[in-house]
Every structure is written in C-alpha cells, then in structure tokens.
Amino acid sequence: MARGRYRSAGTPYRNEAALSFLTIGHRGMMGVEPENTLRSFARAEREGLDVIELDLHLSKDGALVVMHDADVDRTTDGTGPIADRTLAELRELDAGDGERIPVFEEIVDAVRAPLQAEIKDAAAARALAEVLRARDLTARVEVISFHDAALATVSRLLPGVRTALVAEHYGIDVVDRALAVGASALSLDIRRLTLELVERAHTAGLRVLGWTVNTHDQLRLSRGLGLDGVVTDFPEIRRAVRFTA
Question: Could you tell me which residue ranges the GP-PDE domain spans (predicted)?
Fold first, then answer.
C-alpha cells in the first residue's frame, strides 16, 4: 500500500522519506533527557525526529502546562495536582536537571518541528483550540488524545485540524471510534497491535502509529505490521529506521 496516500494538505513533513515512516519523539526525547522539558524537545529536534510529541494539562489559572501526569510528584521536586497550582507556582519546581515546567506556547517557539499535542486533561481541549487558531498552527500541530470527547471538541472548534485517537486497551472497534470523532490517525500501544487491525485502519484511510518503540525488535515488528510510524524515547530508533525499511 502506498504510504503517500496518508499525506494531507498542509502536513509539514520534513522530507519525502518521512512520508513512508515517521519517527515521533516521546515527550521530546525522554529516554535521554528530562521528559516534557525544553531541553528534551530541543534534543529531539537535534536528533532529527520527524515529529515531537508532548502532553498538556491546565494549571489553576488556565495555562497549557506541558506535563504527562496529573500530579507533579513523579517528574518534579514538588507534590500535588497540577490543577491546584498557578503557573507561577509550577515554574518554581525543578522538572529535572534544573529545567522548569514549560507551557505549550514556549515549545511552539523553541522548536520548528511538527508537533503532536496530547490532551491529557479533557478540559484543555478548548484552550488548545484557541491557541492553535490564534497562532495559525493547524498545519503544524496534530492534536491527539485518549479522550474521544476531547478530539470531538477540538474538531468542532477548529474545523480542519488533524487529530489522532490514542489507545492502550482497545479492540478492533478502535477504528470505528476514530472515524466517529473525525480522527485521521490512530496511536496505539504496540503490545496489542495486530495485522488485522492495521489493515482495517488503512482501508478506512487512517494512519497507524505504534508506541512505545524502544528496541530494534519492536522496530522490526512495527515495520512488519506496516505501521506508518512509531513513538520512541531514544534517538537510536530514529537512526535505525533506515536499516529496517
């Protein structure tokens, strides 16, 4: 199946090679840098990842905070929910190696690569749509989420935005779920992926991405399944792609 069919108008792929198989930097390059920090995103871009993925929550005062967990405990020297702190309070925390917690707009300005913005908190959907519209980012940013309703909200507020449904525990019906919310791609836990599901998704016109691919065996499996790309923590996977074509 020709992969070129999955390119949509305005999609900012780096080069023609990226059309056949995308490598996506997970929370930047979290295998070698503090996740979801400016340092991690800069490293992902420097290593040549085709797309950079990040996670979004809302702070107490409505800022689009880049962090994976709902609490700050795991990745900072603080404790408690993000939603209970203002952005100024969050900025006081160490997010690893002296890095500070960034907001979405800072990442947009800091790197030039295409982005996948994952809505972790469904309440962030409206705020993200407003930023994408105000800064004319719909061609550069693909919105992804585990929350079907969040994707539907973004699509309603920002017609034409590219979206992808993320799933960890799923069955063949995940294809129908993606189509129902107008998504153009699936981003799925590779441990549950089957050739049947990938072929059904491709037949429906959906791209299929696998996560998290951190070993050469996982990369070979991804190529064997005919995936359109992988999400990875490590730059070595980006460099290995040319050997698994």
Answer: 21-242
- Which residues lie below 8 Å from residue 48, measured CB to CB, with a gap of 6+? 235, 238
Place of tokens 């449904």: 165
Angle, vertex CA 10, rays to CA 232 and CA 119, nearest 5 = 45
How many independent structural domains does the chain possess? 1
- The answer to whether position 192 is within a domain reads yes
pLDDT in tens, 29-58: 999 999 999 999 999 999 999 999 999 999
CATH code, domain carrying 238 = 3.20.20.190
Q: Is residue 56 classed as helix, strand or coil in its secondary structure?
A: strand
Backbone angles phi, psi at 43, to 5 degrees: -65, -45
Residue 47 lies in a domain: yes
Residue 88 is assigned to a structural domain of this protein: no
- Examine residue 104 and state whether it is found in any structural domain, yes or no: no
Among 224, 226, 195, residue whose Cα is nearest residue 209: 226
Query: What is residue 245's DSSP assignment?
Result: -
Among 123, 150, 130, which Cα is nearest to 61's?
Answer: 123
Summarised one tens digit per residue, pLDDT across range 124-168 is 999 999 999 999 999 999 999 999 999 999 999 999 999 999 999
For residue 238, what are the domain limits?
A: 22-57+65-70+112-243
Query: How many CA atoms lie within 13 Å of 190's alpha carbon, on the beta-carbon side?
Result: 23
